[in-house]
């Protein structure tokens, strides 16, 4: 896996403010490419169009939720290997379990610090 500075990361979150915050933090990490999607459909299209090393996905994506997107990716042989970090404002047992069963590689509760996000990304890519 690439170092964070060489990583191509896609952010899938319906909230533009959260996408901008994450993109700024990833820019500070020096990521090679940061893409953005505001829905599961946009994320899937972006992942099919170009390779990404990591997907940061919001649990509460509209229409198709984050866990459902993750399940679809894990079923697709061409996309099944992407590392996935799910973010959510909640960490209920049921939510974390659903995310894990869908196939996420990590789970992060909002709000989080830049240092914690960077640590998780390094762990997932390292």
Automatic annotation (TrEMBL):
<keyword id="KW-0597">Phosphoprotein</keyword>
<feature type="domain" description="Response regulatory">
    <location>
        <begin position="8"/>
        <end position="125"/>
    </location>
</feature>
<dbReference type="InterPro" id="IPR001789">
    <property type="entry name" value="Sig_transdc_resp-reg_receiver"/>
</dbReference>
<dbReference type="InterPro" id="IPR050595">
    <property type="entry name" value="Bact_response_regulator"/>
</dbReference>
<dbReference type="GO" id="GO:0000160">
    <property type="term" value="P:phosphorelay signal transduction system"/>
</dbReference>
<feature type="modified residue" description="4-aspartylphosphate">
    <location>
        <position position="58"/>
    </location>
</feature>
<dbReference type="Pfam" id="PF00072">
    <property type="entry name" value="Response_reg"/>
</dbReference>
<dbReference type="InterPro" id="IPR011006">
    <property type="entry name" value="CheY-like_superfamily"/>
</dbReference>
<protein>
    <submittedName>
        <fullName>Two-component system chemotaxis response regulator CheY</fullName>
    </submittedName>
</protein>
């Amino acid at each position: 896996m690439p170092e964070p500075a060489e990583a191509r990361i896609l952010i899938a979150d319906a909230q533009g403010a959260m996408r901008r915050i994450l993109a700024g933090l990833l820019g500070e990490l020096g990521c090679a490419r940061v893409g953005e999607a505001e829905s599961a459909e946009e994320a899937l299209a972006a992942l099919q169009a170009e390779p990404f090393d990591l997907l940061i996905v919001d649990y509460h994506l509209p229409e198709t939720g984050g866990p459902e997107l993750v399940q679809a990716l894990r079923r697709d042989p061409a996309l099944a290997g992407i590392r996935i970090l799910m973010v959510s404002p909640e960490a209920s047992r049921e939510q974390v379990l659903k995310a894990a069963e869908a196939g996420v590689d990590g789970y992060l509760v909002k709000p989080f610090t830049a240092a914690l996000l960077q640590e998780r990304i390094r762990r997932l890519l390292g």
